[in-house]
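Table S2 (continued). Query chain:
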Amino acid sequence: MRMVSQNSKYTSNLQKAGAALEDVKILLKYWKNSVPQKELVKELIVTNVLGKRSRKRTTDVIQCIFLPRYVNGYPKDHWVYLKKLMEANIPSDIIRPLLYFHCALNEPIVKNFVKKVLLERYEKGILEVESQDAYDFIQRGIEDSTIPVRWGDAVRIRVASGLFAALKDFGIIEGGRSRKIAPKFIPMQVFFYIAFFIYNEALPEKKLLIMIIGSCFY
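Corresponding output:
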């Protein structure tokens, strides 16, 4: 029986972009196995499929967001299923939590902020949240070594901003000027996708289902 091998490495990738939902959808449309990864990445950058102002911006989205979350991350080749769902014109309100699910599996700073900060507040009935909370979480984590990185203050600020922006785009945080933790809700189709994930990975269903929903969807 295999065990969950989620990525446990903290990166500063979030300073490059947050959820990047529309960019990810475009990249899923063009991604394929028939071309070597390096060649395909180069082709997507040269042709500017994302319509960015610079190649560097396109490169950042592909290398720091798309590849580690949806192509090279855990589980292997899960982008294939996401692509099929995109081709089937699945509504955005279903695609969005699925993209968040895989982001949380492969970006531990996202999963842990949701679990250690948002979940604790939600259970206490405290729904208000602001970007400073993301910065404070990173600051405390670095100071007590629960976040095993040595980022300078400028990087901490950018990562915190990217983290907060990502959770807004993924729908975990909602609201205008006054941000709040969104109500818990998992669409039935997303639940079935997670169940398929469990079956495909041949893992203990009940235990893993509780772990995934608890750590990713708080």
